Amino acid sequence: MTEHSVAVIGAGKLGEVVLSGLLRSGWPAARLLATTRRPERAAELAERYGIRPVLNLTAVTQADVLLIAVKPQDAAKLLDDFGMKVPPGKLVVSLCAGLPTSFFAERLPGGIPVVRVMTNTPALVDEAMTAISPGPYATEEHLALTEEIFRPVGRTMRVPESQQDAVTALSGSGPAYFYLLVEAMIDAGILLGLPRHVAQDLMVQTVVGSAMMLRDSGEHPVKLREAVTSPAGTTASAIRELEKHGVRAAFLDALEAARNRAAEIATQMAAPTR
Ligand SMILES: NC(=O)C1=CN([C@@H]2O[C@H](COP(=O)(O)OP(=O)(O)OC[C@H]3O[C@@H](n4cnc5c(N)ncnc54)[C@H](O)[C@@H]3O)[C@@H](O)[C@H]2O)C=CC1
Ligand SMILES: O=C(O)[C@@H]1CCC=N1
């Protein structure tokens, strides 16, 4: 492991997930900094993780890697405050959905490398999917350092930045779609008369097992689904209903909407704030 220090700028939900992952992977707390807007949040993180909450400007001067984890809508204001004060030699890694690396480069001194990352909350159980793209001034060394930060909490993949909005729609938001489906299936179990805890236990183990088969068998999902679907059986009846209700089309539309929203955020944020 390198001797770099990392600051999470804007340690909210995702920032905390990343911080906890770094600690689990053996990153010393002494080399982790976090910034927050509210002092109570800073105290909570210090107590929970033993890391040092600092002001943004302190983080910028003391840490080698600046992980920007504020909402995209807050990024311009954040960079107005300290962007031009980022000293040479730092690496800026954006976790913000939608924002292109050029958004950061325009608000940083020339020569500061920017890397764009889209990770997801399964980082909490070391099963994240993290997509990494180089932006201005980012070299192989910067990409490798970014991978070093995210690899302990799951898989990493390099993608061209032009694919990041689609990645955001798929794997960034993906856990939310999945939880919605599970929630709906638990509700269905209750409708069929099962006690809630029974429906939940049945579904949770079913999705864990199905996800492991998908990953470990390497089979296409169609093949795995076919193996469950017996002739004139129960699954075929259910799938007819799902197709009738347009579940597949709903996913196509939903992910397109997520991709479009990422692009819209970028357009809105590109407008001057002052
Ligand atoms: N939640 C998720 O699953 C994922 C989120 N993201 C991205 O991560 C970023 C954060 O998302 P969440 O954690 O869900 O939001 P969040 O609202 O929980 O976290 C953002 C945090 O930044 C803090 N903040 C805002 N301005 C600040 C400032 N000037 N100085 C210090 N702290 C400041 C806020 O107080 C808040 O705690 C977003 O850009 C989002 O697009 C990316 C992938 C997945
Ligand atoms: O909902 C969002 O905007 C963020 C980006 C991907 C997941 N959550």
UniProtKB/TrEMBL annotation:
GO CC, one annotated term: cytoplasm
Keyword Nucleotide-binding: no
Pfam families attached to this UniProt entry: F420_oxidored, P5CR_dimer
Major site of localization recorded for this protein: cytoplasm
EC primary class: oxidoreductase
Recorded catalytic activity of this chain's protein: L-proline + NAD(+) = (S)-1-pyrroline-5-carboxylate + NADH + 2 H(+); L-proline + NADP(+) = (S)-1-pyrroline-5-carboxylate + NADPH + 2 H(+)
EC code: 1.5.1.2
SUPFAM superfamilies given in the database record: 6-phosphogluconate dehydrogenase C-terminal domain-like, NAD(P)-binding Rossmann-fold domains
Pathway: Amino-acid biosynthesis; L-proline biosynthesis; L-proline from L-glutamate 5-semialdehyde: step 1/1
Binding, NADP(+): 9-14, 36, 69-72
UniProt binding sites for NADPH: 56
GO-annotated biological processes: L-proline biosynthetic process
Domain Pyrroline-5-carboxylate reductase dimerisation, first and last residues per copy: 161-264
Gene Ontology molecular function terms on file: pyrroline-5-carboxylate reductase activity
Keywords associated with the record: Amino-acid biosynthesis, Cytoplasm, NADP, Oxidoreductase, Proline biosynthesis
Top-level taxon of origin: Bacteria
Locations listed in the record: Cytoplasm
Pyrroline-5-carboxylate reductase catalytic N-terminal domain sequence ranges: 6-98
Positions of transmembrane segments: none
PANTHER family from the UniProt entry: PYRROLINE-5-CARBOXYLATE REDUCTASE, PYRROLINE-5-CARBOXYLATE REDUCTASE 3
Function: Catalyzes the reduction of 1-pyrroline-5-carboxylate (PCA) to L-proline.
Family: Belongs to the pyrroline-5-carboxylate reductase family.
Designated name of the protein: Pyrroline-5-carboxylate reductase
Species annotation: Paractinoplanes ferrugineus
Phylogenetic classification of the source organism: Bacteria, Bacillati, Actinomycetota, Actinomycetes, Micromonosporales
